Amino acid sequence: MRRWQHAVPALLFSILFSGITQANAADGECLVKDVSDYQWRVRHPADLPARLELAPGAMVEECFTMKGVGKYPLTLTARGIAISVNGAPAVKDQPVEVKDGDTLRVSLQAPDRYNTMWTNRLEFKESDSERRRGIYRIVWITQTANTPRKPETWYVGPSRQYRQLKDILPQLAAGDTIYLDPDAEYEPVEIKNISGTEALPIRLIGNTKNAGDRPVFAGGTERFNWTLAVRHSHNWTIENVVLQDGGLCFRNEATNTVLKNVLIRRCSTGVLSTDRNSGNLSMINVEVTESGGKKPGRSWGHAVYVASDQHSFPGSQFLLKDSFLHDNRGNSVKSRFENTLIENNWIESGEDPQAKYLVELIGYDQKYDFAGQQFKVKGNTMLMRPPGLGSRTGGDGNSGSRGDTLYENNLFLIDEDFGRTIVRTFQGLHSVTLRNNSIAFIEDENEPVLLTDEIPDANWVEGHPVITLENNNVTEDTRLLKRDETGDGDDRSAVTITGNRELPPIVTTMEKIEELRPQEGSYIEIKSF
User: Fold this and answer.
1) Which helix (H) or strand (E) holds 18?
2) Computed over its alpha carbons, how large is the radius of gyration of the chain?
3) 8 Å CB contact between 205 and 239
4) Rounded to an integer, what is the distance from CA 378 to the centroid of its chain?
5) How far apart are CA 333 and CA 382, in angstroms?
6) Which tens digits make up the pLDDT trace of 445-485?
7) Of 195, 210, 356, 370, whose CB has the highest number of CB atoms within 10 Å?
8) How far apart are CA 112 and CA 20, in angstroms?
9) What backbone phi and psi angles, to 5 degrees, belong to 61?
10) Which are the contacts of 269, defined by CB distance < 8 A and separation ≥ 6?
11) Cα 40 → chain centroid
12) Which of the 8 DSSP states describes residue 13?
């Protein structure tokens, strides 16, 4: 059976970026920032979009309308930020009163130095004495471009002038390339406040074409036990290295981060992208193995656990492509991103008792702020065996995604002893679609369930399920849809089951799968089944 395949000097830099930094959201329609309660009388977060790559000294402005203030006004102060309310003259370093529906224009001057990050805070004092918290803050991150000079190339290794990555970090600028000598081990490192630009990313590259000789970052930093971390260090591309044996192999707290040809192994969590301060993250040709799980007294770790900051970096996407995830504990992929694309990967359940979901696509953690997340799982080989749990979309008990999930052109390889549903919905969604997927069995066929819906009618955005199962290749013993009735509604007008083909069971062997699965520890090649 064939699987579906998709297969400059400083002055010049300042001029280049000045045209970008003078434009701002205030020139168009103002944002709406909802600061109403989400639970326990604590307000929603409502940070302003981060402003990166600013020319030193540039003026920046943002405009937004406050929603959900409530009956009691707020008193706003913001050091160094000029504030205008409803078109009134701007004031600076003075308190202003803010009511529900007020429109604010805030402006500031960026630092006059390259590569300088400021965390600017709009601080609102509550006048409601019954509030759980008396102060509410909106954060506005600004960062000047790291473009003081032309890009340079650096060589780092045990016999070089610079032996460790940390030795050159303070000197890096946008567009720089760092080559790490192969077949060498490097100290774990936290990269903080050192950014490239979208046009000129900073590239960290293992200088070898042999996967077995890739340079290795091993262990964890002294304070946090991170093997490699980028924090407010945007536009980094990390290629051809190994990250291993830390509490957390890779921490992303930045935007436009790319991992390519990276091997990640033996960490409590393989990859983590944070709820705050994280934007676009791409993992291409990445292997993650022997990671995740739960240690006594600790929370669950996962092979890949990613989220994005929909306020500082709205519209961000997590891309997992052409990658190999295997023999992990916890969830292989757990995403709370605003947008997720998981495409053309080989993902398989570990056999450890702590192995959980292959793919879990869920709502933002507790804050209920996304208008609806978009999840796409396309063209993957997904091997399901016990004790793994298949896949889940919607929520994990904290919050539902309220968005759309698409599984398309995937091959589900089902172990003969796997007795779970292939995809499960939970907590809250707008829609779920399974289209053009295929099922094959390992060693012997069983009676799979393609989709189990566990969402009460009221928790579907439309007030009833929106489910499409179409053109999937199944068997006569496949149950297409199992719905745990958890409400009194009977509107099934948006449940569409059509064009699914009942074919003779396709049974393969583990020997055949071993021939096709990517080779461990090597550069990844995803083969057709």
Assistant:
1) helix 10-22
2) 25
3) yes
4) 17
5) 12
6) 999 999 999 999 999 999 999 999 999 999 999 999 998 75
7) 195
8) 16
9) -140, 150
10) 247, 248, 249, 291, 292, 301, 302, 303, 305
11) 27
12) H
Strand partners of residue 241:
none
* Cα distance between residue 466 and residue 480, in whole Å: 15
- Give the span between the Cα atoms of 220 and 228, in whole angstroms: 8
Residue appearing with tokens 């830390």? 246
Q: Which residues pair with 375 in a beta bridge?
A: 340, 405
Q: Return the H-helix or E-strand segment holding 453.
A: strand 449-453
Nearest-angstrom CA–CA distance, 70 and 264: 48
Q: What sign for the dihedral angle of Cα 482, 486, 489, 494? A: negative
- DSSP strands (E only) in 99-206: 103-109, 117-126, 135-144, 153-156, 177-180, 185-186, 189-192, 202-206
Residue 12 — pLDDT band, cuts 50, 70, 90?
very low
Report yes or no: 166 and 190 within 8 Å, Cβ to Cβ: no
Contact 108, 120 (CB under 8 A): yes
**DSSP secondary structure of 385-397:** -TT---EEEE-SS
pLDDT greater than 70 at residue 23 = no
- Quote the pLDDT of residue 216: 98
Collapsing DSSP to helix, strand or coil, 213 comes out as helix
Q: Tokens in use for 252?
A: 């992303």
Confidence of residue 398 (pLDDT cuts 50, 70, 90): confident
